[in-house]
Design goal:
The chain has helices spanning about 60-65, 90-105, 120-130, 155-165, 170-175, 185-190, 200-205, 220-230, 250-255, 275-295; strands spanning about 5, 20-25, 30-35, 40-45, 70-75, 85, 110-115, 135-140, 240, 270. The chain is globular. The protein has a single domain, classed as 3-Layer(aba) Sandwich (Rossmann fold), CATH 3.40.50.1820. The protein is of the alpha/beta class and about 300 residues long.
Length: about 300
């Protein structure tokens, strides 16, 4: 299956993100990641979703790094990582394996997982299957759909558009998932990884891979994770924004699923939409550091 990598030149004018890309082989494709040493003993693993890249966490890295190392990868198909050109390559299982391989190749330990959107669909099951590597979980605007849940109409509209629209403006799409308008340069930064359709296969395909039926690939992995998390004893801070019509319905489900979630403050990020890291990144980072300190 073919692989492409977005030219480095596309990222030269990205504002506010002066971090070099490191690369690790995750079974064929190489994943790019930012690795900030930080000042404390913690290790934060920050996983983005669809159709963004690690740039989404730029407002959070400085505050998180005050508490420890911050590792922010680009999922395969996104950002500076390699991208399969065939949409059929983006199965749930293939994406899961790349994230789990990334975790083990870097030998990450004592991890506080910070995950949103597809970052949660992949990262949370990876944590469930590698519990010895994780200290805490922070699911944000995400969910654990095993095919038994009902997805909102707006999600179905988004899925169909991503799959079938003749052209996609990724910068505009990201802006549509934010509470406020984005600067032109920021919109361009979100669009930078996707110069043409060969680079856009993952962005187009992933919404269709969310398990909406128990027979879909990924439903069993996520269902098994839900069973594991029903007995999870490590700290979990469910941190959703107040203005996301896509994932809002998953928030109470996650707070009820994780036994320790109710031990944390019942916190909403006010003024944040789906991409809450873009809307309220500094505030979220402060909330997460406080969570680490109290646990």
């Amino acid at each position: 299956m073919g692989l492409v990598r977005t030219s480095d030149e596309r990222f030269e004018d990205v504002p506010g993100y002066d971090y070099d890309a490191n690369y690790v082989d995750v079974g064929g494709p190489e994943m790019a990641y930012v690795d900030v040493a930080g000042d404390g003993d913690e290790t934060f693993l920050c996983l983005h979703g669809e159709p963004t890249w690690s740039y989404l966490y730029r407002k959070m890295i400085p505050t998180l790094s005050e508490a420890g190392r911050v590792v922010v990868p680009d999922l395969v198909g996104f950002g500076r990582s390699d991208k399969w050109t065939d949409r059929e390559a983006y199965t749930y299982d293939a994406m899961y394996e790349t994230v789990e391989t990334f975790l083990t190749e870097l030998d990450l330990q004592n991890v506080t997982l910070v995950c949103q959107d597809w970052g949660g669909l992949l990262g949370l099951p990876v944590a469930a299957n590698n519990p010895e590597r994780f200290a805490r979980l922070v699911p944000m605007n995400t969910g654990l759909p095993d095919g038994s849940q009902t997805m909102p109409d707006i999600w179905h509209q988004f899925k169909d558009m991503m799959s079938d629209a003749p052209e996609l403006d990724i910068g505009q799409l990201v802006e549509g998932g934010c509470a406020e308008e984005l600067d032109e340069a920021v919109r361009a930064a979100y669009a930078a990884p996707f110069p043409d359709e060969d680079h856009m296969a993952g962005a187009r395909e992933l919404p269709s891979r969310v398990p909406t039926d128990p027979e879909m690939r990924g439903a069993t992995v996520i269902g098994d994770a839900r069973e594991t998390f029903a007995d999870w004893e490590k700290p979990v801070f469910v941190l959703f924004s107040d203005s996301d019509p896509i994932t809002r319905g998953s928030r109470d489900d996650l707070r009820e699923l994780f036994p320790t979630a109710a031990e944390q403050p019942d916190t909403w990020i006010v003024g944040g939409a789906h991409f809450l890291q873009e809307d309220k990144g500094e505030t979220i980072a402060e909330e997460i550091v406080a969570f680490v300190e109290r646990t």
